Amino acid sequence: MLLNVIAIVVAVLLIGVIMLQMQGTGLSSSFGGGGEFYRSRQSIDKLLIWVTVILTTIFGILSIILLIPR
Question: pTM above the 0.90 mark?
Answer without folding.
Answer: no
